[in-house]
TrEMBL record:
UniProt domain Cyclodeaminase/cyclohydrolase: residue ranges: 7-185
Originating species: Granulimonas faecalis
Domain of life: Bacteria
Gene Ontology terms, MF aspect: catalytic activity
UniProt xrefs under Pfam families: FTCD_C
Protein name, as recorded: Cyclodeaminase/cyclohydrolase domain-containing protein
Length: 208
């Protein structure tokens, strides 16, 4: 999809009765907005002479978050492409045993492939959440509320990508494989929740 289009255009596409864009793209977009929000806090910290002692580290984080933001949007496109393969597999004929076998093989590969982008989204969001915790401790206190917003959006990206994984694993014939993927997703969700809670707690210490 074109990420240069107006936000309203994307929201209209999202709200239309079509399967794509869907939850995977929305999860990636939440991650991109969260990364950009944290990038803003980092940039404000860099610009504040009071935080000269961490300016070098903040410059590193600003560059990393810029790359993360762009990666989230690329992953949104990858998720949509992977869903297209699943949709095509579901439409394959199954009138004969040979056709059923071919369809099952293609669907299994498509479902596994469709889990790749959501896992990449959740892993990237968890990595960004670890940066939220660092920025909450060392960044400018004037933007503490923005760290909370970033953490909340990144946590939503984790939750949404976990749900996208579950939407694929429920149809997998290989249940051992599916269970392993679900366990991995649950672990990422737990880590995301832990990091988000820590970052928000630190960020809001001076706001209460």
């Amino acid at each position: 999809m074109s990420w240069s289009q107006p936000v309203e255009t994307y929201l209209e596409d999202l709200g239309a009765p079509t399967p794509a864009p869907g939850g995977g793209a929305s999860s990636a977009l939440a991650g991109a907005v969260g990364a950009a929000q944290l990038q803003m806090v980092v940039a404000l910290t860099c610009a504040n002479p009071r935080y000269a002692g961490v300016a070098g580290r903040m410059a590193e984080l600003e560059a990393a978050l810029e790359a993360d933001r762009r990666r989230f949007l690329a992953l949104a496109d990858e998720d949509a492409e992977a869903y297209g393969r699943v949709a095509r597999a579901l439409r394959l004929p199954r009138g004969t045993d040979t056709e059923c076998a071919a369809r099952s093989e293609e669907l299994a590969a498509a479902l596994l492939g469709a889990a790749a982008a959501p896992f990449a989204i959740m892993d990237l969001a968890v990595a960004c959440l670890s940066l939220c915790d660092e920025v909450a401790r060392t960044g400018t206190s004037m933007a503490a509320s923005d760290v909370t917003v970033a953490a909340a959006l990144l946590r939503a990206a984790v939750d949404g990508s976990v749900a996208t994984v579950l939407a694929n694993t429920r149809w997998m014939a290989d249940r051992a494989l599916a269970d392993g993927l679900v366990a991995r997703a649950d672990a990422a969700r737990g880590e995301g929740e832990r990091l988000a809670a820590s970052a928000i707690r630190r960020a809001e210490e001076d706001l209460r």
